[in-house]
Amino acid sequence: MADAKIIDGKAFAAGLRARVADGVAALKASHGVTPGLAVVLVGEDPASQVYVRSKERALVELGMNSFDHHRAADMAESELLALIDHLNADPAVHGILVQLPLPGHIDSQKVLARIVPEKDADGFHVVNAGLLATGQPGAIVPCTPLGSLLLIRDTLGRDLKGKRALVLGRSNIVGKPMAQLLLQADCTVTMAHSRTVDLPGECRRADILVAAVGRPEMVRGDWIKPGATVIDVGINRVPAAEAGKSRLVGDVAFDEAVKVAGAITPVPGGVGPMTIACLMLNTLAAACRAAGAPVPEEAAQGMAR
Ligand SMILES: NC(=O)C1=CN([C@@H]2O[C@H](COP(=O)(O)OP(=O)(O)OC[C@H]3O[C@@H](n4cnc5c(N)ncnc54)[C@H](OP(=O)(O)O)[C@@H]3O)[C@@H](O)[C@H]2O)C=CC1
Ligand SMILES: Nc1nc(=O)c2c([nH]1)NC[C@@H]1CN(c3ccc(C(=O)N[C@@H](CCC(=O)O)C(=O)O)cc3)C=[N+]21
Questions:
Q1: 63 Cα to the center of ligand 1, angstroms
Q2: Is 170 annotated among the ligand-binding residues?
């Protein structure tokens, strides 16, 4: 059998960013509003700094305002909550992103809950999770699942009805919202996790397999149904062959899977760039809602806007 089609998330994300840039220009022209995202980073975690920098770069490229709030790792939780209150009240800020993970002395759930749902660009607030789960208008959809769904639709077409989907991982930021989106798209959805019996067998039934476990190359080639669409969300840094260097791998053993799957996302260059492009899309959508302008269809994914 021929090797799988490699889904080019980097290229799709570039196209999406261009559509967002057009939307930003249109909103400026029609309503005089420039979308703005506040990015809050607490501490000096090197990986977080890399992600935050690429978000800030993308914002500027797309003509949006970037408000950076970098704070020391030992800041008090009360100070962070006060910063969120300030950003909630600032009309130039349409989206707020608090980079995770936060230092251990800060309660992440408490901080995420403090963001007003309309400005929750990540879609992590319980109100947005609830709107998504109940299929109601105005939900802000978490960026990684949204980006994954856009890649799935680009690969298989808009109509996903009746397809068997397996989501491996049940976190609040990836697995659960991914399953909700696929359910909304009329897939038959199974969620697997660390207590699942016969993980390979569950995976082998899936037409669409989304892996979000954070275990390097855990999903093997013989876990994959021939012809399946495989979305690898995992970002794992592992030691490279060359001493002292590291490389990124996904949750799927790519070299094996590419021989079995119909289509597969690489790591890097798959879901990662989509996460950032969707953050830009969510910020634009939040600014549109605040201004009373139409919300881009891509941000709503067939749900009521
Ligand atoms: N591309 C991107 O933009 C992003 C990538 N990521 C990456 O996606 C991956 C998942 O992230 P996230 O959802 O935050 O991770 P979490 O650690 O929050 O969740 C991992 C999930 O995988 C399950 N799991 C862990 N080990 C196993 C196992 N051996 N067998 C079966 N299930 C297992 C856990 O099960 P249980 O619930 O039972 O413990 C849990 O539900 C990571 O590699 C992360 O780096 C994350 C966000 C964005
Ligand atoms: N509030 C919050 N929201 C997030 O969305 C969030 C977060 N916190 N904390 C950390 C995770 C991780 N994350 C990634 C974003 C982009 C890439 C990405 O672009 N990856 C590139 C490679 C980058 C590299 O080379 O390191 C790729 O896959 O091609 C990866 C991971 C967002 N996260």
A1: 33
A2: yes
C-beta of residue 236 within 8 angstroms of C-beta of residue 249:
yes
Q: Which domains does the chain have, with CATH numbers?
A: 31-121 (3.40.50.10860), 142-271 (3.40.50.720)
Which residues are designated catalytic? Answer: 55, 99, 122
Question: How far is it, in rounded angstroms, from Cα 43 to Cα 25?
Answer: 34
The confidence score (pLDDT) of residue 2 equals 85
The rounded average pLDDT for each run of 10 residues, N- to C-terminus, in the chain (305 residues) is 93 98 97 98 92 95 97 98 98 98 97 98 98 93 98 97 98 98 97 98 98 98 98 96 93 98 98 98 97 90 55
CB 160 within 8 A of CB 184: no
Q: Which pTM was predicted? A: 0.97
Q: Which helix (H) or strand (E) holds 184?
A: helix 175-184
| Ligand 1 centroid to residue 217 C-alpha, Å | 12
64 in Cβ contact with 36 (< 8 Å):
yes
Residue 40 in contact with ligand 2 by CB distance below 6 A: no
Q: Give the pLDDT score at 303.
A: 60
ipTM: 0.98
Atom 38 in ligand 1: residue holding the nearest Cα: 194
Distance of CA 206 to the CA centre of its chain: 21
124 phi and psi angles, rounded to 5 deg:
-95, -15
Contacts of 290 (CB under 8 A, 6+ apart): 33, 94, 118
Q: What pLDDT is stored for residue 297 in this prediction? A: 87
**Residue 47, number of CB atoms within 10 A of its CB:** 11
